[in-house]
Protein backbone atom coordinates (compact mmCIF):
# COMPACT_ATOMS: atom_id res chain seq x y z
CA UNK A 1 0.00 0.00 0.00
CA UNK A 2 1.54 3.30 -1.14
CA UNK A 3 1.20 6.18 1.30
CA UNK A 4 0.24 9.48 -0.34
CA UNK A 5 0.67 12.99 1.05
CA UNK A 6 -1.08 15.78 -0.79
CA UNK A 7 0.09 19.39 -1.02
CA UNK A 8 -2.77 21.79 -1.63
CA UNK A 9 -6.28 21.67 -0.16
CA UNK A 10 -8.11 23.69 -2.80
CA UNK A 11 -10.34 22.67 -5.70
CA UNK A 12 -8.01 20.05 -7.19
CA UNK A 13 -6.80 18.83 -3.81
CA UNK A 14 -10.39 18.10 -2.83
CA UNK A 15 -10.96 16.13 -6.04
CA UNK A 16 -7.76 14.14 -5.57
CA UNK A 17 -8.51 13.35 -1.92
CA UNK A 18 -11.88 11.91 -2.93
CA UNK A 19 -10.23 9.88 -5.70
CA UNK A 20 -7.65 8.34 -3.35
CA UNK A 21 -10.47 7.01 -1.15
CA UNK A 22 -11.45 4.78 -4.09
CA UNK A 23 -8.03 3.87 -5.49
CA UNK A 24 -6.56 0.43 -4.99
CA UNK A 25 -3.02 0.29 -3.67
CA UNK A 26 -2.89 3.83 -2.24
CA UNK A 27 -3.81 5.51 1.03
CA UNK A 28 -3.97 9.22 1.81
CA UNK A 29 -2.00 9.94 4.99
CA UNK A 30 -1.62 13.72 5.13
CA UNK A 31 -2.62 17.14 3.80
CA UNK A 32 -0.29 20.13 3.41
CA UNK A 33 -1.54 23.67 2.95
CA UNK A 34 -0.28 27.03 4.21
CA UNK A 35 -3.93 28.06 4.66
CA UNK A 36 -4.57 26.28 7.94
CA UNK A 37 -8.34 26.46 7.66
CA UNK A 38 -8.39 24.74 4.29
CA UNK A 39 -5.93 22.07 5.44
CA UNK A 40 -7.90 21.36 8.64
CA UNK A 41 -11.19 21.11 6.78
CA UNK A 42 -9.98 18.62 4.18
CA UNK A 43 -7.89 16.61 6.65
CA UNK A 44 -10.90 16.24 8.95
CA UNK A 45 -13.05 14.91 6.10
CA UNK A 46 -10.62 12.06 5.43
CA UNK A 47 -9.30 11.54 8.94
CA UNK A 48 -5.65 12.35 8.22
CA UNK A 49 -3.05 14.71 9.67
CA UNK A 50 -2.45 18.20 8.28
CA UNK A 51 0.68 20.32 8.08
CA UNK A 52 1.47 23.92 7.12
CA UNK A 53 4.54 23.01 5.03
CA UNK A 54 5.83 20.09 2.98
CA UNK A 55 9.05 20.15 5.03
CA UNK A 56 7.12 19.49 8.23
CA UNK A 57 5.09 16.73 6.64
CA UNK A 58 8.22 14.99 5.28
CA UNK A 59 9.76 15.07 8.74
CA UNK A 60 6.67 13.61 10.40
CA UNK A 61 5.24 11.12 7.88
CA UNK A 62 6.72 8.15 6.03
CA UNK A 63 5.18 8.84 2.63
CA UNK A 64 5.83 7.22 -0.75
CA UNK A 65 4.07 9.67 -3.06
CA UNK A 66 3.68 13.45 -3.01
CA UNK A 67 0.66 14.77 -4.93
CA UNK A 68 1.11 18.48 -5.66
CA UNK A 69 -2.08 20.48 -6.25
CA UNK A 70 -0.66 24.00 -5.93
CA UNK A 71 -0.75 27.22 -7.95
CA UNK A 72 1.56 26.87 -10.92
CA UNK A 73 4.14 29.36 -9.67
CA UNK A 74 4.57 27.37 -6.43
CA UNK A 75 5.07 23.94 -8.00
CA UNK A 76 8.78 23.92 -8.75
CA UNK A 77 10.09 24.26 -5.19
CA UNK A 78 7.78 21.51 -3.97
CA UNK A 79 8.61 19.11 -6.81
CA UNK A 80 12.34 19.59 -6.17
CA UNK A 81 11.86 19.15 -2.42
CA UNK A 82 9.86 15.93 -2.85
CA UNK A 83 12.32 14.47 -5.38
CA UNK A 84 15.26 15.25 -3.10
CA UNK A 85 13.62 13.07 -0.44
CA UNK A 86 13.13 10.19 -2.87
CA UNK A 87 9.36 10.57 -3.21
CA UNK A 88 7.38 9.81 -6.37
CA UNK A 89 5.69 12.98 -7.62
CA UNK A 90 2.33 13.62 -9.24
CA UNK A 91 1.85 17.26 -10.22
CA UNK A 92 -1.23 19.17 -11.32
CA UNK A 93 -1.20 21.83 -14.04
CA UNK A 94 2.49 22.10 -14.90
CA UNK A 95 2.50 25.38 -16.80
CA UNK A 96 5.58 27.19 -15.62
CA UNK A 97 7.03 30.35 -17.09
CA UNK A 98 10.03 28.75 -18.78
CA UNK A 99 11.24 25.46 -20.21
CA UNK A 100 14.23 25.68 -17.87
CA UNK A 101 11.95 25.43 -14.82
CA UNK A 102 10.19 22.41 -16.30
CA UNK A 103 13.47 20.73 -17.21
CA UNK A 104 14.81 21.21 -13.68
CA UNK A 105 11.79 19.40 -12.26
CA UNK A 106 12.00 16.58 -14.81
CA UNK A 107 15.73 16.11 -14.30
CA UNK A 108 15.48 16.24 -10.51
CA UNK A 109 12.97 13.38 -10.51
CA UNK A 110 15.01 11.41 -13.04
CA UNK A 111 18.21 11.84 -11.02
CA UNK A 112 16.41 10.75 -7.84
CA UNK A 113 15.06 7.65 -9.59
CA UNK A 114 11.41 8.48 -8.82
CA UNK A 115 8.32 8.49 -11.02
CA UNK A 116 7.11 11.89 -12.20
CA UNK A 117 3.73 12.42 -13.85
CA UNK A 118 1.92 15.63 -14.71
CA UNK A 119 -1.86 15.77 -14.95
CA UNK A 120 -3.43 15.86 -18.40
CA UNK A 121 -6.74 14.43 -17.27
CA UNK A 122 -8.53 15.00 -20.58
CA UNK A 123 -6.78 11.88 -21.90
CA UNK A 124 -8.76 9.89 -19.33
CA UNK A 125 -12.20 11.22 -20.25
CA UNK A 126 -14.06 8.45 -22.15
CA UNK A 127 -15.40 10.76 -24.86
CA UNK A 128 -11.95 12.13 -25.74
CA UNK A 129 -10.51 8.61 -25.63
CA UNK A 130 -13.22 7.55 -28.09
CA UNK A 131 -12.47 10.50 -30.36
CA UNK A 132 -8.75 9.62 -30.45
CA UNK A 133 -9.62 5.99 -31.22
CA UNK A 134 -11.77 7.07 -34.17
CA UNK A 135 -8.87 9.12 -35.53
CA UNK A 136 -6.29 6.37 -34.94
CA UNK A 137 -8.48 3.79 -36.67
CA UNK A 138 -9.07 6.14 -39.64
CA UNK A 139 -12.85 5.92 -39.11
CA UNK A 140 -13.13 9.56 -40.24
CA UNK A 141 -10.63 9.19 -43.06
CA UNK A 142 -7.83 11.70 -43.39
CA UNK A 143 -8.55 14.51 -40.91
CA UNK A 144 -8.36 18.07 -42.22
CA UNK A 145 -9.70 20.32 -39.46
CA UNK A 146 -10.46 20.23 -35.74
CA UNK A 147 -12.55 22.71 -33.77
CA UNK A 148 -12.44 22.81 -29.98
CA UNK A 149 -14.20 25.10 -27.53
CA UNK A 150 -13.91 25.38 -23.76
CA UNK A 151 -16.02 27.76 -21.67
CA UNK A 152 -15.38 28.07 -17.94
CA UNK A 153 -16.62 30.12 -14.98
CA UNK A 154 -14.52 32.54 -12.99
CA UNK A 155 -12.75 30.59 -10.27
CA UNK A 156 -12.88 31.45 -6.59
CA UNK A 157 -9.27 30.91 -5.52
CA UNK A 158 -7.00 32.31 -2.87
CA UNK A 159 -5.11 35.52 -3.67
CA UNK A 160 -6.61 35.53 -7.19
CA UNK A 161 -3.46 33.78 -8.53
CA UNK A 162 -5.47 32.02 -11.23
CA UNK A 163 -5.96 35.28 -13.12
CA UNK A 164 -2.41 36.57 -12.67
CA UNK A 165 -0.66 36.47 -16.04
CA UNK A 166 2.69 37.18 -14.34
CA UNK A 167 2.31 33.78 -12.64
CA UNK A 168 1.49 32.15 -15.96
CA UNK A 169 -1.79 31.16 -14.46
CA UNK A 170 -4.42 32.95 -16.53
CA UNK A 171 -7.43 30.66 -16.35
CA UNK A 172 -8.14 30.59 -20.10
CA UNK A 173 -4.57 29.57 -20.93
CA UNK A 174 -4.65 27.09 -18.09
CA UNK A 175 -7.91 25.61 -19.32
CA UNK A 176 -7.08 25.20 -23.01
CA UNK A 177 -3.84 23.38 -22.20
CA UNK A 178 -6.09 20.30 -21.96
CA UNK A 179 -7.13 20.78 -25.58
CA UNK A 180 -3.56 21.48 -26.73
CA UNK A 181 -2.32 18.31 -25.06
CA UNK A 182 -5.11 16.25 -26.64
CA UNK A 183 -4.27 17.64 -30.09
CA UNK A 184 -0.57 16.80 -29.72
CA UNK A 185 -1.41 13.34 -28.32
CA UNK A 186 -3.75 12.65 -31.23
CA UNK A 187 -2.12 14.39 -34.21
CA UNK A 188 1.54 14.94 -33.28
CA UNK A 189 3.67 18.06 -33.14
CA UNK A 190 2.48 21.64 -33.69
CA UNK A 191 4.19 23.60 -36.47
CA UNK A 192 2.70 27.10 -36.18
CA UNK A 193 0.65 29.06 -33.64
CA UNK A 194 -1.47 32.19 -33.91
CA UNK A 195 -3.48 33.61 -30.99
CA UNK A 196 -5.89 36.51 -30.65
CA UNK A 197 -6.94 38.12 -27.39
CA UNK A 198 -6.57 41.47 -25.66
CA UNK A 199 -3.52 41.28 -23.39
CA UNK A 200 -3.06 43.63 -20.44
CA UNK A 201 -0.42 44.04 -17.75
CA UNK A 202 -2.08 41.63 -15.36
CA UNK A 203 -3.83 39.20 -17.63
CA UNK A 204 -6.02 38.71 -20.63
CA UNK A 205 -8.36 41.71 -20.55
CA UNK A 206 -11.04 39.77 -22.35
CA UNK A 207 -13.39 36.92 -21.68
CA UNK A 208 -12.34 35.15 -24.85
CA UNK A 209 -9.21 33.76 -26.47
CA UNK A 210 -8.82 32.28 -29.96
CA UNK A 211 -5.90 30.03 -30.94
CA UNK A 212 -5.18 28.62 -34.39
CA UNK A 213 -2.71 25.74 -34.71
CA UNK A 214 -1.19 24.13 -37.77
CA UNK A 215 0.00 20.62 -36.98
CA UNK A 216 3.06 19.22 -38.74
CA UNK A 217 0.90 16.59 -40.43
CA UNK A 218 -1.22 19.32 -42.05
CA UNK A 219 -4.23 19.28 -39.70
CA UNK A 220 -5.59 22.75 -38.88
CA UNK A 221 -6.98 23.12 -35.37
CA UNK A 222 -8.92 26.03 -33.89
CA UNK A 223 -9.38 26.43 -30.13
CA UNK A 224 -11.80 28.92 -28.62
CA UNK A 225 -11.53 29.57 -24.89
CA UNK A 226 -13.77 31.70 -22.71
CA UNK A 227 -14.59 32.44 -19.09
CA UNK A 228 -18.08 33.88 -19.29
CA UNK A 229 -20.12 31.12 -17.63
CA UNK A 230 -21.71 31.81 -14.26
CA UNK A 231 -20.91 28.29 -13.04
CA UNK A 232 -19.46 25.04 -14.33
CA UNK A 233 -17.90 24.48 -17.71
CA UNK A 234 -18.77 23.59 -21.30
CA UNK A 235 -16.61 21.91 -23.95
CA UNK A 236 -17.04 21.13 -27.64
CA UNK A 237 -15.05 19.02 -30.11
CA UNK A 238 -15.48 18.63 -33.85
CA UNK A 239 -13.16 16.50 -36.00
CA UNK A 240 -13.69 16.70 -39.76
CA UNK A 241 -12.18 14.11 -42.11
CA UNK A 242 -12.67 13.05 -45.70
CA UNK A 243 -14.65 10.04 -44.53
CA UNK A 244 -16.78 11.55 -41.80
CA UNK A 245 -17.52 14.21 -39.21
CA UNK A 246 -17.52 13.69 -35.46
CA UNK A 247 -18.96 16.19 -32.99
CA UNK A 248 -19.07 16.05 -29.22
CA UNK A 249 -20.44 18.53 -26.72
CA UNK A 250 -20.29 18.38 -22.94
CA UNK A 251 -22.25 20.69 -20.67
CA UNK A 252 -21.83 20.38 -16.92
CA UNK A 253 -25.25 21.94 -16.49
CA UNK A 254 -26.99 19.39 -18.74
CA UNK A 255 -29.42 16.81 -17.35
CA UNK A 256 -27.67 13.68 -16.04
CA UNK A 257 -28.95 10.14 -16.55
CA UNK A 258 -32.00 9.59 -14.38
CA UNK A 259 -33.01 6.12 -13.13
CA UNK A 260 -36.51 5.38 -11.80
CA UNK A 261 -37.01 2.82 -9.04
CA UNK A 262 -40.14 1.46 -7.40
CA UNK A 263 -39.62 1.21 -3.63
CA UNK A 264 -41.84 0.58 -0.63
CA UNK A 265 -42.11 4.35 -0.26
CA UNK A 266 -43.28 4.83 -3.83
CA UNK A 267 -41.41 5.94 -6.95
CA UNK A 268 -37.82 7.08 -6.38
CA UNK A 269 -35.65 8.98 -8.86
CA UNK A 270 -31.84 8.78 -8.77
CA UNK A 271 -29.40 10.74 -10.86
CA UNK A 272 -26.43 8.83 -12.22
CA UNK A 273 -23.19 10.06 -13.76
CA UNK A 274 -22.56 8.59 -17.22
CA UNK A 275 -18.82 8.55 -16.41
CA UNK A 276 -19.12 5.81 -13.80
CA UNK A 277 -15.54 6.28 -12.60
CA UNK A 278 -14.07 9.76 -12.29
CA UNK A 279 -11.35 10.53 -14.87
CA UNK A 280 -9.31 11.98 -11.98
CA UNK A 281 -9.51 8.62 -10.24
CA UNK A 282 -8.48 6.81 -13.44
CA UNK A 283 -5.52 9.14 -13.89
CA UNK A 284 -4.27 8.75 -10.32
CA UNK A 285 -4.86 4.99 -10.39
CA UNK A 286 -2.69 4.82 -13.52
CA UNK A 287 0.13 6.63 -11.71
CA UNK A 288 -0.10 4.36 -8.66
CA UNK A 289 -0.11 1.27 -10.91
CA UNK A 290 3.01 2.53 -12.73
CA UNK A 291 4.87 2.85 -9.43
CA UNK A 292 3.78 -0.58 -8.24
CA UNK A 293 4.56 -2.31 -11.55
CA UNK A 294 7.74 -0.38 -12.36
CA UNK A 295 6.30 1.12 -15.55
CA UNK A 296 6.61 4.61 -16.99
CA UNK A 297 3.51 6.85 -16.81
CA UNK A 298 1.73 7.51 -20.10
CA UNK A 299 2.33 11.25 -19.59
CA UNK A 300 6.02 11.94 -19.05
CA UNK A 301 7.67 15.22 -18.18
CA UNK A 302 8.93 15.45 -21.75
CA UNK A 303 5.37 15.11 -23.09
CA UNK A 304 4.52 18.15 -21.01
CA UNK A 305 7.38 20.12 -22.59
CA UNK A 306 5.66 19.83 -25.98
CA UNK A 307 2.48 21.34 -24.58
CA UNK A 308 4.51 24.00 -22.77
CA UNK A 309 6.22 24.97 -26.05
CA UNK A 310 2.79 25.65 -27.56
CA UNK A 311 1.53 27.58 -24.51
CA UNK A 312 4.63 29.79 -24.59
CA UNK A 313 4.09 30.33 -28.33
CA UNK A 314 0.48 31.36 -27.62
CA UNK A 315 1.78 33.88 -25.11
CA UNK A 316 4.34 35.18 -27.61
CA UNK A 317 1.71 35.48 -30.34
CA UNK A 318 -0.57 37.43 -28.01
CA UNK A 319 2.27 39.82 -27.17
CA UNK A 320 3.43 40.37 -30.77
CA UNK A 321 0.26 39.86 -32.78
CA UNK A 322 2.20 37.54 -35.09
CA UNK A 323 2.07 33.86 -36.02
CA UNK A 324 4.81 31.90 -34.24
CA UNK A 325 6.65 29.02 -35.91
CA UNK A 326 7.90 26.30 -33.60
TrEMBL record:
Database matches in InterPro entries: Gfo/Idh/MocA-like_OxRdtase_N (IPR000683), Gfo/Idh/MocA_Oxidoreductases (IPR051450), GFO_IDH_MocA-like_dom (IPR055170), NAD(P)-bd_dom_sf (IPR036291)
Pfam families, per database record: GFO_IDH_MocA, GFO_IDH_MocA_C3
GO molecular function: nucleotide binding
Domain GFO/IDH/MocA-like oxidoreductase: 128-244
Gfo/Idh/MocA-like oxidoreductase N-terminal domain: residues covered: 2-120
PANTHER family assigned to the protein according to its UniProt record, in alphabetical order: BILIVERDIN REDUCTASE A (PTHR43377)
The protein, known as: Gfo/Idh/MocA family oxidoreductase
